[in-house]
Every structure is written in C-alpha cells, then in structure tokens.
Hints:
The chain is mainly β and 106 residues long. 8% of the residues lie in helices and 41% in strands. Strands 2-1-7-6 form a 4-stranded antiparallel β-sheet, with no helix packed on it. The chain has a 3-stranded antiparallel β-sheet with strand order 3-4-5, with no helix packed on it. The termini are far apart.
Amino acid sequence: RDDVESRGLGDVYKRQSGNTADIYIDDKLVQTIDMSVDDEYTFQTDKGSNTVEVRNGAVSMKSADCPDKVCVRMGTKNRNGETITCLPHKLVIEVHGGQEQEVDIK
C-alpha cells in the first residue's frame, strides 16, 4: 500500500504543466525559465536587448530592438522543442516539457 496521500488530479495536472524555456545567447545557455510562473525577463546581448514574456504557460518575445522584429512576430510557444530565434542578437529560446509538437507528414 502506498503511504503517500493522493493529492487529486489538479496536482497531477500542475506537475505535468511545468514547462521550462532555455535561453541561449551566442550558443551559450544563460538561463532556464520556469514557464509555470508569469514573468518578464530582459536579456542584453552584444547586439541589443530582448524582453521575454511568460504568460499562462507559454513564452514569447515581447520586445526586441533588432531591426527586423521577426522574433517578436513568432508568437507564443509552449510545445516541447519549439523555438523563438532572434538572429541579429544571436538569442534563442527553446521550450522543454509539455505537449509534443504535432507532426504534419502529408
């Protein structure tokens, strides 16, 4: 018999939704972010500044001072393996955990 008391399905869901996002600058891991906590993070690179936002278990590039802003338009990510990349600043966000990416093989 298991001596640990069940905490219910709500606790199981919360534990499974604890995604993380690794932040790389110039191919070096600089921080791992807990995506279960809403927050903003600002990263300064040699080329400029990026603000990463975590909201409702998803990560996005809220702002960047790069010329093209492609990274800001990449939207929110919450699936395992998804990335957001700011090429001018050499900053990459990579999501770990959570749902697997859907594969489209038509």
